[in-house]
Design goal:
Blueprint lengths: L1 E5 L4 H13 L4 E6 L5 E2 L5 H11 L2 E6 L14 H22 L3 E10 L12 H20 L5 E7 L6 H4 L11 H12 L7 E4 L1
Parallel strand pairs: 1-2, 1-4, 2-3, 4-5, 5-6, 6-7
Helix pairs in contact: 1-6, 2-3, 3-4
Length: 202
């Protein structure tokens, strides 16, 4: 089984890769990131995504643990902030489905990532709420609409325990989860038949 993990060297991505290796040492795991990983990809660039798949070829599963958005008071958000957030967190994942599905083997899966901020609103989290909500809706609709025999789901984790040192001031009152728990949700999706669902890890 060949599995592409975007953001595979990050906190969550590393936990996903670790659990995949524990599950089955024969899995071929390819990590991808802007500057780290087995292959480099800029998810904000359609051309970069296409070049990555041209290099690695077909895969059985695509797991995305990457994408970010701007955290600012809504009054301070600029057009550049909007473009960055939408391109990184939303359009990158949309293009991962539109392009990646062509390189996904039959009965494979694509797992996108949203997050708790769509449901647990926080100060300066407007762009995350916007993009997370859009990603979750897109995953459900795409799974319903796509003709190819593949599955598309979305995992929405809470802020990670490991990230609270940096982000605790933003996530006051929000219960964090271990990266390992969030990673398990991605593994469960790969190993199940679930389709068109948002799996919340809050």
């Amino acid at each position: 089984m060949k599995i592409l993990v975007l953001g595979g060297c990050g906190t969550l991505g590393s936990a996903i890769v670790s659990q995949l290796k524990e599950k089955n040492s024969s899995y071929e795991i390819i990590t991808a990131g802007r500057k780290t990983g087995d292959v480099h990809v800029d998810m904000t660039s359609k051309e970069s995504i296409e070049a990555m798949f041209a290099k690695i070829g077909n895969v059985d599963h695509i797991v995305n643990a990457a994408g970010s958005a701007e955290m600012k008071p809504i009054e301070d958000l600029t057009q550049d902030d909007l473009k960055f957030s939408i391109n990184s967190k939303l359009l990158g994942q949309v293009n991962m489905v539109l392009i990646g599905s062509k390189y996904l083997n039959e009965k494979g899966s694509i797992s996108l990532i949203a997050g708790v901020i769509k449901d647990e609103l926080i100060k300066m989290g407007t762009m995350y709420a916007l993009t997370n909500g859009a990603v979750a809706a897109f995953a459900r609709a795409a799974a319903f609409d796509i003709k190819k025999n593949i599955r598309i789901n979305c995992i929405s984790p809470s802020v990670l325990d490991e990230s609270m040192v940096e982000y605790a001031e933003y996530f006051k009152g929000v219960k964090s989860v271990p990266a390992a728990k969030a990673a398990k949700a991605f593994i469960d999706v790969i190993e199940s038949d679930v389709n068109g669902q948002e799996i919340k890890v809050y």
